[in-house]
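Hi R.,

Here's the chain you asked about this morning:
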Amino acid sequence: CLAPARPRTTKPDRRRDDMRSALRVSQRAHRLRPQSAPGAPASVAEAARGALAAAVLSRAYHAPLREMNFLLYDVHNFEGHYKGLNEEVLTPCDRETVDMVVDATKTMCEDVLAPLNEGGDRVGSVWKDPNTVVTAPGFKDAYKMYAENGWQALSFPEQYGGQGLPMSLALVQSEMIAAANWTWLMFPGLSKGAINTIIAHGSEDLKDEWLPSLISGEMTGTMCLTEPQCGSDLGQVTTKAVPIDGAEGEYSISGTKIFISCGEHDMTDNIVHCVLARLPDAPAGTAGISLFLVPKRLKTGELNNLGTSRIEDKMGCHGSPTCQLEFEGAKGWLIGTPNRGLNHMFTFINTSRLGTAVQGIAAAELAFQNSLWYAKERRSMRSLSGSKEPDQVADAIIHQPSVRTMLLTQKAVAEGGRSMVYECAKIADLMQQAEYAGDDAAVKQHDGRLAFLTPILKGFLTEAGKEAADLGIQVYGGHGYIKDNKAEQVFRDVRIASLWEGTTQIQALDLLGRKIMLGKLKPINEHAAGLRAQCTPYLTSSDSQLRSHAWSVLYHSMEWQYLTYRVAMRAASDKEAISSSSVDYLMYSGYVTLAAHWLEMEAAASRGGPEEPDFYKAKRQTSEFVFERLLPRTRAHKAGILASVQSALDVSPDAFSFDHAR
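And here is the predicted structure, written out as tokens:
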């Protein structure tokens, strides 16, 4: 929940004009490119290497504006959505404002952030001492530009220095930045989670003291949950919080936290940590965890009693330092209610889970972009149906059906996943508006909807994004295994997505166990009814393809509901049935959701005007691929959902191997 907004001091039209003026300044700033060093290359070899580097760099990332505009306006009608928001609660947002934000972000991503992505991977972050971690070349300057142009403040309340625009606009922007340079985005991205948590649960004094600097970008934020002995099972947290005598409201925080992304860096002078810890009289387990704000530096500028003992040597995401933090009597302040820390931290966690879903589609988009140009230029053999490019030494590999299958899978995940995220972004706007207006009933309704969709997006899109990145290597063949071609970096960076903020298995249990079963099946009943309502207008369409796909989604919506009831019946006598079927259930849910979004995209393409027939035709063709090639994967997942629990449990732990781990 967010705090109710204080009375506004500027009129809606004036706020809109101020916003547009700031965006124009931002666009000019982003057009500044670093100047190349004077002088010619020292050798022909260096010149050749420079040309190759320039060619690869030119294909680093291109913002897919046509695809985004199709979803924003043709499919999801963001223009109408923004008109329906209360301008007395949120800063007015129209198509011109959206286009300005997207265009300025495009320039920032293509000219500033994408060129830094490879350096972030090759150089990474370097630990110097407990209070110094040096970030990759260019990261600090890029962050300074980002903060000075007001991007961090885009969708936060005006009362704390934000611009008050809808949350969806920041989410649209974050997907572009994520594809351009995911590890750089982690620094401001984690700060947004800290900001949301403090807004929702902090005292007025904490908000007034810390939010303006976080929202301006002067400080960044982190969340500190994991400890050496516990990850997902946070009931084992042992970090202590002891009240400081004579200092009301202040606590001494002691303990070790690991896997803290961006826990130390040189991009800002101060970092605000949201730390889970136990009070002296706290009950055992998760019921005894509280949440504390612990800054790197106190307001006096003095260093707090905490430091980074090491940063992890990771498979990927080298541009973001993953820190082990040592809290040694560090001064902190309680956020929210004692012993309700885990509940409060879920505000942060849910922000991060949606952000991680964005990481999945960003990886799919980047892998698709890398793969497509290569598939068009790489020549190998001839098409089995006859030469497609007889004037060339061989046909481009894009003419091979097996290669097209990989490319279309990447395209379907990137564009369909983007649509899934945009849907949640609109719901987040409605929830944000309800929170500001104090409409508890509306907040509960929208929160329940997001709670159901979030594990599907986080779990499914990270798995699908990981597959798309893997296919990116496969399209390149052996060249995909070479670092200079950058396909393998996409995979290494996204591999963490299905692990952090709750593994796919945790997301699956959350969806099926906590959200659906504990909700007494109400969430799936409501969602299935919504899918049926979505399909109904197309069931009698004169467009045979659209009609066929609508019937397919209708069938799967009913089957989804049926499978849920089957699991519930089995779980009544064997609770392990939920865990046994949960991952297949989540993936089934993801493919049906993806197909439902492609149905809407196909319907929008069918309504498209004559000015871009090839664009709309490609949308319909990709939808056909989804229904022919991807949705049938639900057949295997259905079998997994209905499989015997005992097939997984009959083998005793000692019988897994008779050679090792004995």
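One quick note: The chain has 20 helices and nine strands.

Cheers,
M.
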